Amino acid sequence: MPRKKIALIGGGQVGGNIALLVAQKELGDIAIIDIPEAENFVKGKALDISQLLPHDGFDCKLSGSSDFKTIKNSDVVVITAGFPRQPGMNREDLLNKNLSIMTNVANEVKTHAPDAFVIVVSNPLDAMVYSFYKVSGFKKNKVVGMAGALDSARFRSFIAEETNLSSQDVTCMVLGGHGDTMVPVSRLANVGGVPLTSLLNEEKINEIEERTRFGGGEIVKLLGKGSAFYAPAQSAVEMIESFIRDKKRVIPCASLCEGEFGINGYFIGVPTVIGCDGVERILTFELNSEEKNALDNTLTEVKKTVQETGL
Length: 311
Prior knowledge:
With about 300 residues, the protein is of the alpha/beta class. The protein folds into two domains: about 5-145, NAD(P)-binding Rossmann-like Domain (Rossmann fold), CATH 3.40.50; about 150-305, Alpha-Beta Complex (L-2-Hydroxyisocaproate Dehydrogenase, Chain A, domain 2). The protein has nine helices and 14 strands. It has helices at about 15-25, 40-55, 95-110, 125-135, 150-165, 200-215, 215-225, 230-245, 290-305, and strands spanning about 5-10, 30-35, 60-65, 75-80, 115-120, 145, 170, 175, 185, 190, 195, 250-260, 265-275, 280. Strands 3-2-1-4-5-6 form a six-stranded parallel sheet. The protein has a three-stranded antiparallel sheet with strand order 7-10-11, covered by helices on one side. It has a three-stranded antiparallel sheet with strand order 12-13-14. β12 and β13 form a beta hairpin. α1 (about 15-25) crosses α8 and α3 runs parallel beside α4 (about 125-135). The mean pLDDT is about 95.
């Protein structure tokens, strides 16, 4: 069976780390695409990773280019292209800067990789994935945004840190927009099957929820320049792997809702089954009144940002 092909649009910190992780998992051959000014840079990254592989015994081919024709016949396209978030800048501030980039990328992907499964990582995420969907005309099962996978990983990490228990045993999810109004669902969180509410008091849980909501901003502030890249890269790879290997993982992702949780026509973070057909289904469950109000609040913010795209 021929290897799958994975195109990475954007060869910065997130794109470069996705390339490394994809190569180490042998998920497929990799094409990294960036602007002409960065062509040698991504060629260098591809070459460097290629020379790492013999140490691990993994096989795949990597290339770097500024020519979108390179993504032809890609099975997966991951879009990280765009301006990074800077200190003092929220995700919505990025909208005008990144909308034109996403519009161009969507047209190129539509031309050269019309059958690909597309994972959007660029911020502001909820607006960018919506923009790609509208411009490209792709079917809804072929487009998804990487949001809740990262937010839920942060939630898991903070729970493990506070309980001093293994993050491997933490199960939790974050719903809603990829921003400060996201909804960590603590009611369903558990460690090894033990409810989080049995391990931590309400005050401590509220502190973890708040830290999760502003987890990206915390890293931006600490780095001083740029934003997180290791955890976002791994979150995207988790989604790539579930598609390539038909794992049917349930991953919180920004998927197009058409009635789920009472939401229609917007990409928002919901429990999403990813398999060989892309977004195969969205799992729903009954929210309590507090969770419903929080989801309505984050939907309002998502709508506002999406409407600003004019699409």
